[in-house]
Write a structure and sequence with these properties.
heterodimer, A: 13-stranded antiparallel sheet, 5 helices, about 45% strand, B: about 425 residues, Pdz3 Domain, 2-enoyl-CoA Hydratase, Chain A, domain 1, six-stranded mixed sheet, four-stranded antiparallel sheet, 12 helices
Chain lengths: ~250, ~425
């Protein structure tokens, strides 16, 4: 065996040894994320959250404003005002997931799309991830923009799984991939997050870059506040949505 | 189609090429432009092998030719030949001169106060919007600022690559200009007499509306009753918020109409999603879609979200060779669903969603990013929407005060009512 061959074999063995290192359990990684971004107590201190931000689609030259209100345990309302497209509203109230826009009008989300909205509406989803992902497993390591990450696969009771990438060093979430479901079809979504900032004891990523098929979207969070009541009626179902709910119930 | 592309067409067709020796910088800019075009298609085309071609081999074939090109015109010609191999619309290179001309003379948004269409090779006034004007519907426009329009049309019609939409655009460019400018036009009236008139160009009909990188365009919407039938017409699928609101209002106000006519003749398309939204006002059934869009990494349904107040009576959609893109998606989808009867002539067969960008050598580059298959399983690209009832607009009918396409639609709606 030549020296070169011996080195190659040693290298391969070293690789095998490295690969054989046990990966931490997914729950350890997910709980660590809760801790490094503020800890259970910080998260559980709040029952209401208001988030504001800007959103842009650089290739199309489109941009707009996003406002999101969320309240414990699982109510949510978002409004995206996107220039020439107008206002797109969505919400989750008392188990009803809905959307309303200038283009399509009002509609109820059903099936996997509704379940996805329910998961996103869960107020304590960082600390209480077990409520929405009964199965979580660490499936490997991968680099995200040069930073080593644990790759965690989260499987909900229904719908599409989500893969998240947590920095080995900081414990912070750097990327996630999933499949967004809507009547328009299933679209692979990849979101890279960065620029974590502290808002009242909790770290939030304030910059996200999303890729949905050929579309790219940038979002900047400009403000996060807690426990200031949302405007009256924010979580009420809009009349058109209520009509749809009543109609569905009558069927 | 955006303003730069519209102007590009006229320049491509009529401008004399100016050949000049290239500087090193120009050569590099052309080469960089070639790389941009080739790479964009490689990365953005909805097929990983664009047009079924070996795209890497295409690079090897065309790059040396662009390197050796003696002029920017020659380099552009080679790049056009390359994208022509895709055999798909919405791939185009517009000369930088187009933009220079646009900047130099301003082109302008002024229009003559009437609509004109090419009917049987002649440019005919189809609608007059200034009641005080002496010009009448059905008159032929013989000349504009000395240009013989029939000769222009005849020349363009010899090129099979020029479709009706482009032809109409080229003619429209000859009739428009700066607001306030005067165009010397010669008409032929109902008695075949020549009528010279100086036509002062007025601000365009409608309100300007843009969409991201798309330059602002005038948008208008009209709805009225023809007897007890609703009639809706709009010039482009833009100004989403207002047009969607107006469309919804028009449908709701016509809840008890005998039928609905949606006139998309001359409508070049616009925001694709608006077709879905409008269909929601006409389709009651849930789970329906107009068609499917295929992009790199995503397949999107043009799904229909039925409105609670959706119109349930007969719907006629009017189309012609200048009905393109979103107009075709809307008309083709409703036809495939059996929800609308289509009247007029075959549409433009140009339905690919596209993006327009500028190249390093200042040329414009338009490229398609998706393919679209209508609900009936056919690609609209290259096929268009074939009307259920083929009927053409004619000068004779216009002179007699009729629109035979509208008449045919109204006649069908009347028969539907009788049969009910």
């Amino acid at each position: 065996m030549t020296i070169l061959t011996r080195l190659t074999v040693l290298g391969a063995l070293a690789g095998t040894f490295a690969a054989a290192q046990p990966l931490p359990k997914a729950e350890t990684i997910l709980d660590r994320y809760s801790e490094v971004t503020g800890g259970k107590a910080a998260y559980q201190k709040h029952t209401q959250q208001t988030m504001t931000g800007t959103i842009s689609f650089p290739a199309q030259g489109l941009g707009g404003k996003l406002t999101r209100y969320a309240t414990a345990p699982d109510q949510e309302y978002s409004a995206l005002e996107l220039g020439p497209i107008g206002k797109i509203e969505s919400g989750f109230t008392n188990g009803v997931a809905w959307e309303k826009s200038s283009i399509l009008g009002p509609r109820l989300k059903t099936g996997d799309e509704r379940d996805q909205a329910a998961r996103e509406a869960l107020f304590d989803s960082q600390v209480g991830w077990r409520k929405i992902f009964p199965k979580a497993e660490t499936i490997g390591s991968e680099s995200v923009n040069g930073e080593d990450c644990y790759k965690v696969l989260l499987t909900p009771p229904s719908g599409k799984p989500e893969t998240r990438f947590y920095s080995k060093k900081s414990g912070l979430l750097l990327k996630s991939t999933t499949t967004a479901v809507s009547p328009m079809g299933e679209v692979a979504v990849e979101v890279e997050v960065s620029d974590y900032k502290n808002f009242d004891g909790i770290l939030f990523p304030t910059h996200s870059k999303s890729k949905m098929g050929a579309q790219q979207m940038d979002m900047l969070i400009t403000g996060v506040s807690f426990d200031q009541p949302a405007p009256a009626g924010t979580f009420d179902l809009p009349p058109e949505i209520k009509t749809l709910v009543d109609k569905a119930a009558a069927k | 189609m955006s303003n730069p592309v519209r102007v590009a067409l006229a320049v491509i067709l009529f401008a004399s090429p100016i050949l000049a020796q290239l500087t090193t910088e120009q050569k590099q800019a052309n080469l960089a432009s070639f790389e941009t075009v080739w790479t964009t298609i490689r990365d953005k085309h909805w097929e990983t092998n664009p047009g079924g071609l070996d795209w890497q081999a295409i690079h090897a074939e065309y790059r040396p030719r662009v390197e050796a090109a003696a002029s920017t015109e020659a380099a552009r010609g080679i790049m056009r030949e390359m994208i022509g191999r895709l055999k798909q619309t919405h791939f185009a290179i517009c000369p930088a001169a187009v933009y220079q001309v646009l900047d130099a003379d301003g082109s302008g948004d002024g229009w003559p106060g009437f609509d004109a269409r090419v009917l049987d090779g002649r440019v005919i006034v189809t609608e007059v919007h200034q009641p005080q004007s002496n010009i009448k519907t059905g008159w032929e426009i013989l000349q504009s600022n000395g240009a013989d329009l029939a000769a222009l049309v005849a020349k363009l019609q010899t090129d099979p690559a020029i479709h009706e939409l482009q032809l109409e655009r080229a003619v429209a460019a000859r009739l428009s200009g700066q607001v306030g400018a005067v165009r010397s036009m010669v008409f032929e009236d109902q008695n075949n007499a020549r009528v010279p008139l100086d036509v002062k160009l007025i601000p365009p009909r409608g309100e300007f509306s843009g969409f991201g990188n798309l330059p602002p365009q005038p948008v208008w919407f009209e709805s009225k009753r023809l007897g007890n039938t609703g009639y809706i017409r709009f010039n482009i699928f833009l100004d989403l918020v207002h047009v969607m609101q107006q469309f919804g209002d028009a449908v709701q106000q016509c809840a008890h109409c005998d039928g609905m006519v949606i006139d998309l003749r001359g409508n070049p398309g616009g925001i694709g999603a608006m077709a879905m939204g409008m269909a929601g006002w006409l389709v009651k059934q849930t789970g329906e879609r107009l068609g499917v869009m295929y992009m790199r990494g995503a397949t999107l349904n043009f799904f229909i979200n039925p409105r609670a107040e959706a119109f349930e009576g007969p719907v006629a959609v009017l189309v012609d060779g200048s009905s393109a893109s979103t107009s075709e998606i809307f008309a083709g989808g409703l036809k495939d669903l059996g929800r609308a009867r289509i009247f007029g002539t075959r549409t433009a067969a140009a339905a690919l969603p596209s993006v327009i960008t500028r190249l390093p050598n200042s040329d414009g580059f338009q490229y398609a990013v998706a393919n679209y298959i209508s609900q009936g399983g056919k690609a609209l690209e290259g096929n268009g929407v074939v009307p259920d009832v083929e009927v053409k607009l004619t000068r004779e009918a216009l002179l007699a005060g009729h629109d035979p396409v509208v008449d045919a639609a109204l006649d069908w709606i009347r028969k539907q009512k009788v049969s009910q």
